Amino acid sequence: MPDAATSPTFSATEPSGIAGWLLLPALAMLISPFKIAYDFYQSFFPILKPSLWFALLSTKSALYNPALALLLSWEIILNIVWLGLTIWLAFLFFKKQKQVPKLYVAWLGLSCILQIADIVFGSFVPGVVEHQDGSVYKELAKSALATAIWAPYFITSKRVKNTFVNDAKIKLPESDWP
After folding, report:
1. Which residue(s) pair with 97 in the sheet?
2. For residue 43, what is the DSSP state?
3. How many structural domains does the chain have?
4. pLDDT of res. 56
5. Can you tell me the distance from the alpha carbon of 39 to that of 45, in angstroms, rounded to the nearest whole number?
6. Residue 171 falls within a domain, yes or no?
7. Does 80 fall in a domain?
């Protein structure tokens, strides 16, 4: 009897599980961490060499630009945090945790917001705008389109509601402390 009390409230005929259209976001969850890591490697690994890093970020260097130093720091920290957040979301996704639909929609929206912020902040740094090709705007358009498609799907889909049903319960070890 305990199984009946804890089972999700949907019939066997309703769609559930990572199948159908939900396979595409699942694929995105598998690929995204690798794409983020690859993009980070392509963009920042060349400037992480100590000599170039010092030239760009040292106030004693002729190449020093405070806006560029702030932008690079922001980009590196943000990319590392974004990678961690994406891996965490992917873990929750495949564990079918109840909070995934809201987190996935937030992840999509935050991706667009961060790309816009990146474009805006980059526009204040001399030389950055001149070296940008149209790829930043293409990436923003892709993110906006993905958000426009997948946010409503995650909000309204019966498959999503029937798939992400697990509660994340964290059990801390008991302590002998008073």
Report:
1. 166
2. H
3. 1
4. 77
5. 10
6. no
7. yes
The pair of three-digit structure tokens given for residue 162, joined into one six-digit string: 């029937």
- Block means of pLDDT (10 residues each) for the chain, length 178 residues? 50 84 97 95 83 79 81 90 97 96 98 93 79 85 97 97 85 67
Question: Residue 117 gets which letter from DSSP?
Answer: H
pLDDT in the model for residue 11:
57
Tokens of 26: 């699942």
Q: What is the pLDDT of residue 12?
A: 61
Amino acid (one-letter) located at 16: S
C-alpha to C-alpha distance for 143 and 178, rounded to whole angstroms = 51
For the purposes of burial, counting CB atoms within 10 Å of the CB of 104, is it exposed (0-12), middle (13-18) or buried (19 or more)?
A: buried
Q: For residue 43, give its domain range.
A: 19-163
3-state helix, strand, coil in the chain (%, to 5): 70, 0, 30
* Residue the block writes with tokens 């937030």: 106
Angle at CA of residue 97, ends 91 and 101, nearest 5°: 95
Integer CA distances (angstroms), 142 to 112, 146, 150, in order: 9, 6, 12
